[in-house]
Amino acid sequence: MTRICIYGAGAIGSHFAVRLAQCPGVSLSLIARGEHLVTIQNNGLTLETDSGNVHATISQAVGHARNLPPQDIVIVGLKATDIADHAQHIGSLLTDNGIAVFINNGIPWWWGYGLDAALTRAAAESNADTPTLALLDPDGALWSHIRPERVIGGVVYSPNEIVKPGHVRHRGQTRILLGEPAPQAVAKSTRLSALIKLLNSAGLTATAAKDIRASVWEKLLVNIANNTICALTRLDNQARMRSPDLFNLGRTLQAEIRAVAAAMGWSVPPAVESRPTVETAAPAPGHRPSMLQDVLRGRALEVDALVGQPLQFARQFGIATPVLTLVHTLLSGLDCSVKQQAARAPDHA
Ligand SMILES: NC(=O)C1=CN([C@@H]2O[C@H](COP(=O)(O)OP(=O)(O)OC[C@H]3O[C@@H](n4cnc5c(N)ncnc54)[C@H](OP(=O)(O)O)[C@@H]3O)[C@@H](O)[C@H]2O)C=CC1
Ligand SMILES: CC(C)(CO)C(=O)C(=O)O
User: Fold this and answer.
1) CATH number of 2-210
2) Residue 274's pLDDT is what?
3) Which of 103, 105, 171, 219 to mutate to test ligand 2, by most ligand atoms within 8 A of the CB atom?
4) For residue 114, what pLDDT band results from cuts at 50, 70 and 90?
5) Residue 280 pLDDT > 50, yes or no?
6) How far apart are CA 250 and CA 140, in angstroms?
7) Are 33 and 23 in contact (CB under 8 A)?
8) In the chain, what are the domain boundaries?
9) How many CA atoms lie within 13 A of 161 on its CB side?
10) Engineering a disulfide at 298: which of 287, 291, 314, 342 sits with its beta carbon 3.0 to 4.6 angstroms away?
11) What ligand is nearest to the CA atom of residue 102?
């Protein structure tokens, strides 16, 4: 029996949980909070898809890691903004050889692990022995408690939103890319192939990334346009793409990210993003990117992982990113106002 915990069962985590709950040979648990947790405990979880609803009973739904036995696999579904605060709990929830799978958008905290010396130094703001990223792992707690050798990196394409407690709505396709952070480990990783097999047996479409950092950059191209502009404008992605100016702004942000990636040694192809015309766009509103969901729910925004860290890289490599810099300033202001509003009306946060 493989023990798997979804740590932070929000939109993405709940989707994974429903699928993994149906999987033979898996003992599934999840960590959630608030009304969502209470509903899961009482009534289970529902995943709404384009082809119908799937319901799962979750027998181990808890509010804290201390209430669970050691896990073979912990899939971290927390927002990037919350991960560092949970470093110790995630670390102690894992067995010694356990695997922590990080699926958050943006640059991950483990980025510097296993890179060659030049890139490791360039990635690090502290020292080359533990090339932590100060924005994402401020005091190195993730590095020391979780240990990057226990990490599998993940990139997830799968639009999801919690529409009411215990109910996640998923639109379109799910595609998951997984990879070993240490490039030299990719070819011989049996734990990676076992994880991929397991996720596929649960109906989650997972494949091995040739280079997980290249996949991170590719996904960032999607998020840098969708998440940031939709959060700032409150338009869903379809509406954003229908505006020529906002579409072009997205392209400019993508070009700046590609320039940063290229300076660091990754040649990222342009985002495959067709521009729906007004005629072909579906009338139904499109997916609200997760950063827009955060604005609407009064939650902290993933500014550092999606924009701040790429900007940090840009500075280190001498790449000019004027539009990214402006968007970073605006998003930081929005993040501040969302947090102030949540502090004034905590019941609605
Ligand atoms: N949603 C999407 O379509 C996609 C999201 N992603 C990425 O996946 C990651 C997760 O996103 P998403 O699923 O949208 O985020 P959510 O905010 O929906 O999920 C995070 C969950 O963690 C819970 N949580 C936070 N702190 C605690 C705590 N101390 N104890 C228990 N539970 C806690 C949150 O509870 P609460 O709600 O109360 O804050 C929430 O349910 C992000 O990096 C996002 O960018 C990637 C692809 C698509
Ligand atoms: C754009 C999308 C849905 C891609 O899967 C995403 O990553 C998000 O909403 O954060």
Assistant:
1) 3.40.50.720
2) 46
3) 105
4) confident
5) no
6) 33
7) no
8) 2-210, 214-348
9) 15
10) 342
11) 1
